[in-house]
Amino acid sequence: MQVNLETYKGIIFDMDGTLVNSMPLHLKAWQLTAEKFDFEYDEEWLYNQGGTPTYGIAELINAKQQRNLDPSALAVSKREFFDQIRHQVALIPETFALLQQLQGQKKLAIGTGADASTTEFILNTLDLLPLVDVVVNANDVERHKPEPDTFLLAAQKIGLTPDQCVVFEDTKTGLAAAQAAGMDCYLVINNKIARFVPKP
């Protein structure tokens, strides 16, 4: 689709599923955790929780499936499985090309629900850190997506107001966060920039 960024001064990219093709790895880690702890693995539902920190997803699993599993144990298991395969992470060509094109033209930020260590590993592995001005991860905010805090802090750190920024996201949770922040959003679907959603 045609992407028009002329009216924005800042571009905020989600990381997993938007800039990097890591969602299959996260889902595999959840699948292995589901097998280990004997809970239902719902791939589509889990994908749409993208942007929510691991512990938060564990709590949501309990609520959705009316279980009483230890969220900390689920989160530790998922992170351990993910860490075993995270080196397989790869860039998403379309959004990465856009990020490269915007160098020197716009303020660039990453706003992710991943924890600090995972974010650092992925951005260093793919050499993305030098390409952005600011990174906000799950450790930087108390309220996570679908709350707006991640994107609001990213805008603040690049010195812009929400209406001067646009978000690139791939999940319903991320879109909700962008809308709550008062920002326009481009949705990435199947590794392609596919849909524009204006702020409410």
From TrEMBL:
Family per record: Belongs to the HAD-like hydrolase superfamily. CbbY/CbbZ/Gph/YieH family.
Superkingdom of origin organism: Bacteria
CDD domains per record: HAD_BPGM-like
UniProt-recorded Gene Ontology molecular function terms: hydrolase activity
SUPFAM superfamilies xrefs: HAD-like
Protein name: Beta-phosphoglucomutase family hydrolase
Keywords: Hydrolase
NCBIfam families assigned to the protein according to its UniProt record, in alphabetical order: HAD-SF-IA-v3, PGMB-YQAB-SF
Signal peptide: none
